Amino acid sequence: MKVNGQATRTIWLAEDAESVEIIDQTKLPHLFEIVRLTTLAEAAHAIEVMLVRGAPLIGATAGYGMWLAMRQDSSDAGLLTAYERLFVTRPTAVNLGWALDSARARLSPLPPPDRAAAALALAAAICEEDVAINRGIGVAGLPVIQALAAKKTKGGPVNILTHCNAGWLATVDWGTATAPIYMAHDAGIQVHVWVDETRPRNQGASLTAWELGNHGVPHTVIVDNAGGHFMQHGQVDMVITGTDRTTAAGDVCNKIGTYLKALAAQDNGVPFYVGLPSPTIDWTIENGVRDVPIEERAAEEVTRMTGRLDDGGIATVLITPENSPAANPAFDVTPARLVTGLITERGIAEPSVEGLAMLFPDRIR
After folding, report:
1. Residues taking part in catalysis
2. Residues facing residue 35 across a β-bridge
3. Could you tell me the residue ranges of all domains in the chain?
4. b or e along 7-19 (b: 16 or more beta carbons within 10 Å of the residue's beta carbon)?
5. Is 222 exposed, middle or buried (0-12, 13-18, 19+ CB in 10 A)?
6. What gap in Å lies between CA 67 and CA 63, rounded to an integer?
7. CA 23, CA 11: separation in Å to the nearest integer?
8. Disulfide check for 326: which of 135, 257, 283, 299 has CB 3.0–4.6 Å away?
9. Is the separation of the CB atoms in 291 and 328 below 8 Å?
10. Helix, strand, coil: what percent of the chain each, to 5?
11. What CA–CA distance (Å, rounded) separates 228 from 268?
12. CA-CA distance, 53 to 50, in Å (whole number)?
């Protein structure tokens, strides 16, 4: 997608071919900074502190992290150390384990001197596959927006509500939930996006709004609790979110607050879709509420906020009483019964064991 009119991805091999470069997403929307990763430790740190975030991008970064690790130590011990170090960086996103398992399976049979080159090739392939998958989600989801636009007998845009950031910043390019939106916009369909701010890290206000604005997509930032109000008043035509892990039965684990949006959508007859890249499906579990590990992040993400001051400076401020504790579950699970459809690169699946199996018979374990 575009930044200041220039096509940009979230992660790429640096010009020196010795390191990887990423966008530091903790600095957005106020600063656009590029960070260079040169070691396993730096790649793991980038995932842990969310310089990169979003399940697909985490997987891609882990792939490059394995390459950086093999440049340092390509022995069997080095491979195991790299796998274990990266695996614990974020527990919820299934793409992380998928990328690391792919790397271990590819590299283990090779002699150590060949592992770095193979890891680099695999990391590049993971990135290109992610772009193709997200483009496929856009193609599959575009007809949904086209159909909603056709029903607008009095004109006006298709109003779409998003939660968190499932845009290209969460992937390598295109995004998951945003891919159909970008394709509709680029095809000349009038769209308008209600952007949930998405506390506590404000990824909607900070990231989704930033990338939509850079691409020229009309949007309005709203507080998290306003979504139901707009649905009640007929101002939301559809909801589309991303997912960090989806079970084989169609339960969707996504940023905290997604479940509440799904409940409001059901109560108001608003279709609720999920942009689902197939590597994010966890075929080993069916009950998301019971079996998906939910990451508990630092209380400081709730008690403090960072923003730009009137004088242009950036500051982090305390917004709660100094001694008040805070809980910070990063994700919640939306049961399949609340989901209208799972928009995948192979088409739109019914959120059920049968629906996903129909589109992915080759993935069933």
Report:
1. 244
2. 22
3. 2-129, 139-359
4. ebbbbbbeeeeeb
5. middle
6. 7
7. 7
8. 299
9. no
10. 45, 20, 40
11. 8
12. 5
Sign of torsion, CA 319 161 282 291? positive
pLDDT score at 7: 87
Place of tokens 């990328």: 99
By C-alpha distance, which of 129, 136, 161, 116 is closest to 60? Answer: 129
Residue linked to tokens 């799972």: 342
Q: What is the arithmetic mean of pLDDT over 12-27?
A: 95
Edge-to-edge, what's the strand order for the sheet holding 34-37?
A: 11-13, 20-23, 34-37
CB 342 within 8 A of CB 274: yes
Rounded Cα distance between 348 and 40, Å, is 37
3-state SS class at 268: coil
| Cα 159 to Cα 271: distance, rounded to the nearest angstrom | 12
Q: How many CB atoms lie within 10 A of CB 135?
A: 16
Secondary element (H or E) of residue 238: strand 238-241
Amino acid at 331: F
285, 292 contact by CB (below 8 A): yes
Look up the pTM and report it: 0.91
- pLDDT, tens digit, for every residue of 82-128? 999 999 998 776 789 999 999 999 999 999 999 999 999 999 999 99
- Spatial strand order in the sheet of 245-247: 281-282, 245-247, 252-255, 331-334
Give the whole-angstrom CA distance, residue 46 versus residue 14. Answer: 16
| pLDDT tens figures, 305-331 | 999 999 999 999 999 999 999 999 999
Structure token pair of residue 150? 């056709």
Architecture of domain 2-129: Up-down Bundle (1.20)
The type of residue at 277 is: P
Say if residues 257 and 333 touch (Cβ distance below 8 Å). Answer: no
CATH superfamily, domain 139-359, is Translation initiation factor eif-2b; domain 2 (3.40.50.10470)
Query: What are residue 305's DSSP bridge partners?
Result: 317
Residue keyed to tokens 């684990």? 253
